[in-house]
Amino acid sequence: SGVLWFGLYMVALNWGEQEVDAGTAAMLVNIGPILMALLGARMLGEGLPRRLLLGMGISFSGAVVVGLAMSGHGTSSVLGVALCLLAAVVYALGVVSQKPALAYGSSLQINTFGCLIGAVACLPFTGVLISEAADAPMSATLNMIYLGVFPTALAFTTWGYALARTTAGRMGATTYAVPAIVVLMAWLLLDEVPTLLGVLGGLLCLAGVAVSRSRQQTGPTPGNPDRPVKGRRHDAEYRSARRP
């Protein structure tokens, strides 16, 4: 997970965003949660509840709408599209790899080791870092420090804490709330008044998250109002309890 998350994903995403506009990058990377749910079902045996699939479909359509609202007049190269798709794939693989690792350590431990491993994986870029950091303005350096402290250290630690307590699919579906939050934050902090398309996309994202996080209601069977419907295992326990 260290190589995938902090090495390959970070490099592919940042490189890809230099080649495509922000809206296109957002739409492509948001394929990641869908892949996450599929890989979680296949590799972790998490299953694919209908509400999860329905909610993710709604949220993805909302992310596409937000991406269209964000898209400017910039060009998108084939290389940039390929890098963003690669970022989405390794994003999903990184989460599925991190999930079982969290059974053997805390989120802080797992992410600390992950960052160290990611740093080792990025050592080939050391020369470029030294030469370009020397010429970079102070604002760019401070932005890089901010990205390391908050969206990486703090966000990944809280992410790991939550991931250890839910499935990879449900956790991925929750990230579809991000486009809606971005629209709101851009309005509050950057005075970027959201378009009708952006508001619609944000609402779709939130609606999809609500659907995917909801649980199927269980109720009594028609023949016995005291007996809940909970599957074969619970049926067997019920029959055993009813025996004299």
**Which structural class matches the secondary elements?**
mainly alpha
So what's the overall shape?
A: globular
Poorly predicted runs are 220-244
Instruction: Give the biggest sheet.
Output: none
Number of helices: 12
- If you average the pLDDT, what whole number results? 83
In total, the number of strands is: 0
> What percent strand?
under 5%
Instruction: Please tell me how large the radius of gyration is.
Output: 21 Å
Helix content: over 70%
Gap from first CA to last CA: 53 Å
Elements, N to C (H/E): HHHHHHHHHHHH
Provide key terms for this protein:
244 residues, mainly alpha, disordered C terminus
Structure description:
The protein has twelve helices and no strands. By secondary structure, it is an all-alpha fold. Residues 220-244 have low confidence and may be disordered.
